[in-house]
Amino acid sequence: MRVRRRVRVSGRVQNVGFRAACRAEALRLDVAGYAVNAVDGTVEAAFEGAPEAVAAMLAWCEHGPRGASVRAVEAIAEDALGASGFEIG
Question: Is residue 15 among the annotated active site residues?
């Protein structure tokens, strides 16, 4: 079974290596998806994979990498798309 969550992370999350660290953590957990900087200063991401792995990614987003200061993480459930790999933009 695969699940997918679309996520918006707010706080000090741009210019701190958030997307690259997110990709590294996703690859470690075998989670597919993407992470991109949004115009409003947040990071938008999608995580798809095993429920436990996606839950671990959501937990990781609560703190992010060193240098980040996460204020909020909003997650929306979506239908799994069969995504593979993890892209950053």
Answer: no
Split into its structural domains, the chain has a count of: 1
Query: 38: domain CATH number?
Result: 3.30.70.100
Give me 62's structure tokens. 């609560």
Task: Please provide the distance, in angstroms rounded to a whole number, between the alpha carbons at the two ends of the chain.
Answer: 27
Q: Along the chain (89 residues), what's the average pLDDT of each consecutive run of 10 residues? A: 97 97 98 98 98 98 96 98 95
Q: Encoding tokens for residue 60?
A: 């990781």
Catalytic: which of 4, 37, 66, 71? 37
Total-model pTM? 0.95
Catalytic residue of the set 4, 5, 19, 23:
19
Residue 80 lies in a domain: no
